[in-house]
Amino acid sequence: MVLHISPASFPSSTDSDSDSLSSPGRLSANLSDSEEQLDKLQQVELVRTVPMSQWRAGTVQAWLEVIMAMPMYIRACAENIKSGKVMLALTDTDLEAGLGISNSMHRRKLRLAIEDYRQAESGHGLSNAADLEHHWVAQAWLNDVGLPQYSQFFHTHLVDGRLLSTLTRADLEKHLHVSKKAHQSSLLLGIQLLHMLNFNKELLQARRADCENQNSDLLVWSCQRIIKWLRDIDLKEFAGSLQNSGIHGAVMVLDPSFNTDSMATALGISASKHMVRQHLSEEMKALLAAARLELVEQEVETVGTPPTISRQSSLGRSMISHIDGQHSFRQLKVRPQVSFNLKSHGGVDITSLNASCEVATPQPENSPARNLSAADLTNV
Protein backbone atom coordinates (compact mmCIF):
# COMPACT_ATOMS: atom_id res chain seq x y z
CA MET A 1 0.00 0.00 0.00
CA VAL A 2 1.30 3.42 -0.93
CA LEU A 3 0.84 6.07 1.68
CA HIS A 4 0.02 9.46 0.17
CA ILE A 5 1.00 12.43 2.29
CA SER A 6 -0.41 15.81 1.51
CA PRO A 7 2.01 18.75 1.45
CA ALA A 8 -0.32 20.36 3.92
CA SER A 9 0.73 17.70 6.44
CA PHE A 10 4.02 19.58 6.92
CA PRO A 11 4.45 23.24 7.72
CA SER A 12 5.88 25.22 4.86
CA SER A 13 9.54 26.08 5.38
CA THR A 14 8.73 29.53 4.10
CA ASP A 15 5.89 29.88 6.58
CA SER A 16 8.10 28.56 9.36
CA ASP A 17 10.89 30.99 8.53
CA SER A 18 8.38 33.79 8.24
CA ASP A 19 6.88 32.94 11.62
CA SER A 20 10.35 32.76 13.14
CA LEU A 21 11.41 36.09 11.73
CA SER A 22 8.14 37.76 12.60
CA SER A 23 8.31 36.57 16.19
CA PRO A 24 9.13 39.70 18.22
CA GLY A 25 10.86 37.67 20.93
CA ARG A 26 13.17 35.79 18.56
CA LEU A 27 13.93 38.87 16.48
CA SER A 28 14.81 40.81 19.59
CA ALA A 29 17.03 37.98 20.83
CA ASN A 30 18.84 37.76 17.48
CA LEU A 31 19.45 41.49 17.41
CA SER A 32 20.56 41.44 21.03
CA ASP A 33 23.08 38.65 20.37
CA SER A 34 24.45 40.44 17.31
CA GLU A 35 24.77 43.72 19.15
CA GLU A 36 26.50 41.98 22.04
CA GLN A 37 29.02 40.35 19.71
CA LEU A 38 29.65 43.64 17.93
CA ASP A 39 30.17 45.41 21.24
CA LYS A 40 32.59 42.70 22.35
CA LEU A 41 34.62 43.07 19.16
CA GLN A 42 34.74 46.83 19.68
CA GLN A 43 35.90 46.34 23.26
CA VAL A 44 38.64 43.94 22.14
CA GLU A 45 39.83 46.55 19.66
CA LEU A 46 40.06 49.05 22.53
CA VAL A 47 42.23 46.55 24.40
CA ARG A 48 44.74 46.72 21.55
CA THR A 49 44.83 50.50 21.31
CA VAL A 50 43.98 52.00 24.71
CA PRO A 51 46.15 51.80 27.89
CA MET A 52 44.72 49.54 30.59
CA SER A 53 44.40 52.45 33.01
CA GLN A 54 41.76 53.94 30.69
CA TRP A 55 39.65 50.81 30.26
CA ARG A 56 36.03 50.76 31.38
CA ALA A 57 34.29 47.70 32.84
CA GLY A 58 33.20 46.33 29.44
CA THR A 59 36.73 46.48 28.07
CA VAL A 60 38.13 44.68 31.11
CA GLN A 61 35.57 41.90 30.66
CA ALA A 62 36.27 41.57 26.92
CA TRP A 63 40.01 41.36 27.64
CA LEU A 64 39.51 38.68 30.28
CA GLU A 65 37.22 36.60 28.06
CA VAL A 66 38.78 36.96 24.62
CA ILE A 67 42.45 37.87 25.08
CA MET A 68 43.13 35.97 28.31
CA ALA A 69 40.73 33.10 27.43
CA MET A 70 39.20 33.15 30.91
CA PRO A 71 35.42 33.42 30.42
CA MET A 72 34.89 31.36 33.59
CA TYR A 73 35.77 34.43 35.67
CA ILE A 74 33.59 36.95 33.80
CA ARG A 75 30.70 37.01 36.28
CA ALA A 76 32.94 37.76 39.26
CA CYS A 77 34.83 40.30 37.17
CA ALA A 78 31.62 42.10 36.20
CA GLU A 79 30.59 42.29 39.84
CA ASN A 80 33.93 43.49 41.22
CA ILE A 81 36.17 45.05 38.56
CA LYS A 82 34.76 48.29 37.19
CA SER A 83 37.83 49.74 35.47
CA GLY A 84 41.32 49.06 34.22
CA LYS A 85 42.76 51.10 37.10
CA VAL A 86 41.25 48.64 39.54
CA MET A 87 42.68 45.74 37.52
CA LEU A 88 46.17 47.27 37.63
CA ALA A 89 46.03 47.40 41.42
CA LEU A 90 44.97 43.78 42.00
CA THR A 91 47.13 41.53 44.16
CA ASP A 92 47.32 37.76 44.15
CA THR A 93 45.01 37.72 47.17
CA ASP A 94 42.51 39.96 45.35
CA LEU A 95 42.44 37.60 42.38
CA GLU A 96 41.72 34.62 44.60
CA ALA A 97 39.22 36.25 46.95
CA GLY A 98 37.58 38.80 44.64
CA LEU A 99 37.48 36.86 41.38
CA GLY A 100 37.42 33.37 42.84
CA ILE A 101 40.53 32.25 40.94
CA SER A 102 41.70 29.23 42.92
CA ASN A 103 44.05 28.00 40.18
CA SER A 104 47.44 29.47 41.12
CA MET A 105 48.71 29.22 37.53
CA HIS A 106 45.73 31.24 36.30
CA ARG A 107 46.47 33.87 38.94
CA ARG A 108 50.12 34.03 37.92
CA LYS A 109 49.11 34.34 34.27
CA LEU A 110 46.90 37.32 35.10
CA ARG A 111 49.51 38.97 37.32
CA LEU A 112 52.13 38.67 34.57
CA ALA A 113 49.72 40.09 31.98
CA ILE A 114 48.75 43.00 34.24
CA GLU A 115 52.43 43.78 34.86
CA ASP A 116 53.08 43.63 31.11
CA TYR A 117 50.31 46.16 30.46
CA ARG A 118 51.64 48.35 33.27
CA GLN A 119 55.06 48.46 31.60
CA ALA A 120 53.42 49.09 28.23
CA GLU A 121 51.95 52.30 29.64
CA SER A 122 55.45 53.59 30.38
CA GLY A 123 56.31 53.39 26.69
CA HIS A 124 57.95 49.96 26.49
CA GLY A 125 55.10 48.29 24.61
CA LEU A 126 53.87 44.80 25.35
CA SER A 127 56.44 42.02 25.48
CA ASN A 128 56.83 39.62 22.56
CA ALA A 129 55.63 36.89 24.91
CA ALA A 130 52.20 38.54 24.81
CA ASP A 131 51.85 37.31 21.22
CA LEU A 132 52.18 33.66 22.24
CA GLU A 133 48.64 32.68 23.19
CA HIS A 134 47.95 29.46 25.04
CA HIS A 135 46.69 27.48 22.02
CA TRP A 136 50.03 28.03 20.27
CA VAL A 137 51.98 26.95 23.35
CA ALA A 138 49.88 23.83 24.02
CA GLN A 139 49.76 22.69 20.41
CA ALA A 140 52.50 24.08 18.14
CA TRP A 141 55.25 24.66 20.70
CA LEU A 142 54.84 21.39 22.61
CA ASN A 143 54.77 19.52 19.31
CA ASP A 144 57.96 21.29 18.20
CA VAL A 145 59.84 20.28 21.36
CA GLY A 146 58.61 16.72 20.92
CA LEU A 147 56.31 16.54 23.95
CA PRO A 148 52.72 16.82 22.64
CA GLN A 149 51.56 14.33 25.28
CA TYR A 150 51.40 17.18 27.82
CA SER A 151 49.14 19.36 25.68
CA GLN A 152 46.00 18.86 27.76
CA PHE A 153 47.71 19.92 30.98
CA PHE A 154 49.06 23.08 29.33
CA HIS A 155 45.57 23.80 27.97
CA THR A 156 44.00 23.35 31.39
CA HIS A 157 46.34 25.89 32.96
CA LEU A 158 46.09 28.24 29.95
CA VAL A 159 49.87 28.47 29.65
CA ASP A 160 50.66 31.39 27.35
CA GLY A 161 54.00 32.98 26.46
CA ARG A 162 54.27 35.06 29.62
CA LEU A 163 53.45 32.18 31.93
CA LEU A 164 55.71 29.85 29.95
CA SER A 165 58.63 32.22 30.51
CA THR A 166 58.40 31.76 34.30
CA LEU A 167 57.95 27.99 34.55
CA THR A 168 60.31 26.12 36.85
CA ARG A 169 61.03 22.44 37.27
CA ALA A 170 58.70 22.44 40.30
CA ASP A 171 55.88 24.00 38.24
CA LEU A 172 56.28 21.40 35.52
CA GLU A 173 56.06 18.53 37.97
CA LYS A 174 53.38 19.85 40.32
CA HIS A 175 50.97 21.57 37.93
CA LEU A 176 51.69 20.21 34.46
CA HIS A 177 52.30 16.57 35.42
CA VAL A 178 55.74 16.39 33.81
CA SER A 179 57.35 13.86 36.14
CA LYS A 180 60.23 12.66 33.94
CA LYS A 181 63.31 14.74 34.68
CA ALA A 182 64.53 14.54 31.09
CA HIS A 183 61.21 15.90 29.84
CA GLN A 184 61.42 18.73 32.37
CA SER A 185 64.88 19.60 31.06
CA SER A 186 63.66 19.43 27.47
CA LEU A 187 60.92 21.95 28.23
CA LEU A 188 63.28 24.24 30.16
CA LEU A 189 65.77 24.20 27.29
CA GLY A 190 62.94 24.97 24.87
CA ILE A 191 61.98 27.93 27.07
CA GLN A 192 65.64 28.96 27.20
CA LEU A 193 65.71 29.11 23.40
CA LEU A 194 62.63 31.34 23.41
CA HIS A 195 64.38 33.66 25.86
CA MET A 196 67.43 33.78 23.59
CA LEU A 197 65.12 34.91 20.77
CA ASN A 198 63.26 37.31 23.09
CA PHE A 199 60.09 35.29 22.47
CA ASN A 200 59.99 36.48 18.87
CA LYS A 201 57.83 33.82 17.22
CA GLU A 202 58.29 35.25 13.72
CA LEU A 203 62.08 35.10 14.08
CA LEU A 204 61.90 31.50 15.28
CA GLN A 205 59.66 30.48 12.39
CA ALA A 206 61.83 32.30 9.85
CA ARG A 207 65.01 30.60 11.06
CA ARG A 208 63.31 27.20 10.99
CA ALA A 209 62.07 27.81 7.46
CA ASP A 210 65.58 28.75 6.33
CA CYS A 211 67.06 25.46 7.54
CA GLU A 212 64.19 23.15 6.64
CA ASN A 213 66.11 21.67 3.70
CA GLN A 214 69.68 22.23 4.79
CA ASN A 215 71.63 21.01 7.80
CA SER A 216 72.26 24.36 9.45
CA ASP A 217 71.07 26.31 12.51
CA LEU A 218 70.56 23.15 14.58
CA LEU A 219 69.71 25.26 17.64
CA VAL A 220 66.20 26.01 16.34
CA TRP A 221 65.40 22.57 14.94
CA SER A 222 62.12 21.06 16.06
CA CYS A 223 61.79 17.40 16.98
CA GLN A 224 60.19 16.79 13.58
CA ARG A 225 63.16 18.38 11.80
CA ILE A 226 65.54 16.04 13.65
CA ILE A 227 63.40 13.07 12.60
CA LYS A 228 63.64 14.29 8.99
CA TRP A 229 67.43 14.51 9.33
CA LEU A 230 67.59 10.94 10.68
CA ARG A 231 65.66 9.72 7.67
CA ASP A 232 67.95 11.67 5.36
CA ILE A 233 71.00 9.89 6.82
CA ASP A 234 69.38 6.48 6.28
CA LEU A 235 68.28 5.82 9.85
CA LYS A 236 64.57 5.94 9.14
CA GLU A 237 63.95 2.63 10.92
CA PHE A 238 64.97 4.33 14.19
CA ALA A 239 63.59 7.83 13.55
CA GLY A 240 60.11 7.10 14.87
CA SER A 241 61.55 6.47 18.34
CA LEU A 242 62.04 10.22 18.77
CA GLN A 243 58.29 10.82 18.82
CA ASN A 244 57.30 12.11 22.29
CA SER A 245 60.96 12.00 23.36
CA GLY A 246 61.53 15.69 24.04
CA ILE A 247 64.66 15.85 21.88
CA HIS A 248 64.92 19.03 19.83
CA GLY A 249 67.68 21.30 18.58
CA ALA A 250 68.11 23.32 21.78
CA VAL A 251 68.64 20.09 23.75
CA MET A 252 71.34 18.95 21.32
CA VAL A 253 73.17 22.28 21.23
CA LEU A 254 72.72 23.82 24.68
CA ASP A 255 73.36 20.68 26.72
CA PRO A 256 77.10 19.95 26.35
CA SER A 257 76.61 16.42 27.68
CA PHE A 258 74.37 15.48 24.76
CA ASN A 259 76.35 13.25 22.40
CA THR A 260 76.13 10.23 20.12
CA ASP A 261 75.42 7.88 23.01
CA SER A 262 72.56 10.11 24.12
CA MET A 263 70.98 10.03 20.68
CA ALA A 264 71.62 6.30 20.19
CA THR A 265 69.94 5.57 23.53
CA ALA A 266 66.92 7.66 22.57
CA LEU A 267 66.71 5.90 19.21
CA GLY A 268 66.95 2.46 20.77
CA ILE A 269 70.15 1.56 18.90
CA SER A 270 71.72 -1.17 21.01
CA ALA A 271 75.41 -1.15 21.90
CA SER A 272 75.90 -4.27 19.78
CA LYS A 273 75.09 -2.34 16.59
CA HIS A 274 78.61 -0.90 16.36
CA MET A 275 78.50 0.04 12.70
CA VAL A 276 75.15 1.81 12.99
CA ARG A 277 76.40 3.75 16.01
CA GLN A 278 79.58 4.66 14.15
CA HIS A 279 77.52 5.99 11.25
CA LEU A 280 75.40 8.06 13.65
CA SER A 281 78.55 9.32 15.36
CA GLU A 282 80.10 10.59 12.14
CA GLU A 283 76.92 12.38 11.08
CA MET A 284 76.37 13.92 14.51
CA LYS A 285 79.94 15.14 14.88
CA ALA A 286 79.64 17.40 11.88
CA LEU A 287 76.17 18.62 12.85
CA LEU A 288 76.92 19.35 16.51
CA ALA A 289 80.38 20.81 15.96
CA ALA A 290 79.06 23.36 13.48
CA ALA A 291 76.11 24.34 15.70
CA ARG A 292 78.16 24.76 18.87
CA LEU A 293 80.90 26.65 17.06
CA GLU A 294 78.30 28.99 15.59
CA LEU A 295 76.91 29.64 19.06
CA VAL A 296 80.38 30.35 20.46
CA GLU A 297 81.15 32.74 17.60
CA GLN A 298 77.85 34.51 18.17
CA GLU A 299 78.70 34.95 21.84
CA VAL A 300 82.20 36.22 21.04
CA GLU A 301 80.77 38.74 18.59
CA THR A 302 78.09 39.81 21.07
CA VAL A 303 79.99 39.86 24.34
CA GLY A 304 83.62 39.98 23.32
CA THR A 305 84.75 36.96 25.35
CA PRO A 306 84.27 33.31 24.44
CA PRO A 307 82.02 31.27 26.74
CA THR A 308 83.01 27.92 28.17
CA ILE A 309 80.99 24.93 27.11
CA SER A 310 81.03 22.63 30.11
CA ARG A 311 78.71 20.87 32.50
CA GLN A 312 79.61 23.25 35.32
CA SER A 313 79.04 26.52 33.52
CA SER A 314 76.49 27.56 30.97
CA LEU A 315 76.93 29.46 27.79
CA GLY A 316 76.65 33.17 28.39
CA ARG A 317 73.17 34.09 27.27
CA SER A 318 72.38 37.03 25.05
CA MET A 319 68.95 38.44 24.54
CA ILE A 320 67.75 40.16 21.41
CA SER A 321 65.42 43.04 22.13
CA HIS A 322 63.81 45.54 19.82
CA ILE A 323 64.53 49.18 20.52
CA ASP A 324 63.24 51.64 17.94
CA GLY A 325 63.23 48.88 15.35
CA GLN A 326 66.89 48.01 15.94
CA HIS A 327 68.40 44.91 17.55
CA SER A 328 70.42 45.39 20.71
CA PHE A 329 72.10 42.63 22.64
CA ARG A 330 72.02 42.39 26.40
CA GLN A 331 74.38 40.08 28.23
CA LEU A 332 72.48 37.98 30.72
CA LYS A 333 73.71 36.51 33.97
CA VAL A 334 75.45 33.16 33.56
CA ARG A 335 73.24 30.38 34.87
CA PRO A 336 73.62 26.65 35.55
CA GLN A 337 73.34 24.52 32.45
CA VAL A 338 70.34 22.25 32.07
CA SER A 339 71.63 18.74 31.59
CA PHE A 340 69.80 16.13 29.54
CA ASN A 341 71.62 12.94 30.52
CA LEU A 342 69.89 9.91 29.07
CA LYS A 343 69.49 6.57 30.74
CA SER A 344 68.16 3.63 28.82
CA HIS A 345 65.03 1.90 30.07
CA GLY A 346 64.22 -0.69 27.46
CA GLY A 347 66.39 1.18 24.98
CA VAL A 348 63.96 4.00 24.24
CA ASP A 349 62.42 5.63 27.30
CA ILE A 350 64.25 8.70 28.57
CA THR A 351 63.64 9.05 32.27
CA SER A 352 66.60 10.53 34.08
CA LEU A 353 69.14 13.30 34.01
CA ASN A 354 71.69 15.00 36.16
CA ALA A 355 69.46 17.33 38.14
CA SER A 356 72.16 18.67 40.44
CA CYS A 357 71.06 22.24 39.87
CA GLU A 358 67.69 23.90 39.49
CA VAL A 359 67.39 26.00 36.38
CA ALA A 360 66.21 29.57 36.70
CA THR A 361 65.16 30.57 33.22
CA PRO A 362 66.65 33.97 32.30
CA GLN A 363 64.22 36.86 32.09
CA PRO A 364 64.55 39.71 29.58
CA GLU A 365 64.89 43.14 31.11
CA ASN A 366 61.43 44.11 29.86
CA SER A 367 59.80 40.87 30.96
CA PRO A 368 56.78 41.34 33.25
CA ALA A 369 58.14 38.52 35.39
CA ARG A 370 61.15 40.60 36.44
CA ASN A 371 58.92 42.88 38.51
CA LEU A 372 57.18 40.07 40.37
CA SER A 373 58.77 38.77 43.52
CA ALA A 374 59.93 35.20 44.01
CA ALA A 375 56.97 34.74 46.32
CA ASP A 376 54.61 35.80 43.52
CA LEU A 377 56.07 33.29 41.10
CA THR A 378 56.16 30.44 43.59
CA ASN A 379 52.90 31.19 45.35
CA VAL A 380 51.43 27.83 44.46
UniProtKB/TrEMBL annotation:
Q: Which residues form the SAM domain?
A: 55-120, 141-197
Pfam families linked: SAM_1, SAM_2
Q: Compositional bias (Polar residues) at which positions?
A: 363-380
SMART domains xref list: SAM (SM00454)
**Stretches the record annotates as Disordered:** 1-34, 359-380
Q: Where is the composition biased (Low complexity)?
A: 1-24
Family annotation (Gene3D superfamilies): Transcription Factor, Ets-1 (1.10.150.50)
SUPFAM superfamilies registered for this protein in UniProt: SAM/Pointed domain (SSF47769)
- Family annotation (CDD domains): SAM_kazrin_repeat2
Tell me where the signal peptide lies: none
What is the protein name given in its UniProt record? SAM domain-containing protein
- What species is given as this protein's source? Ameiurus melas
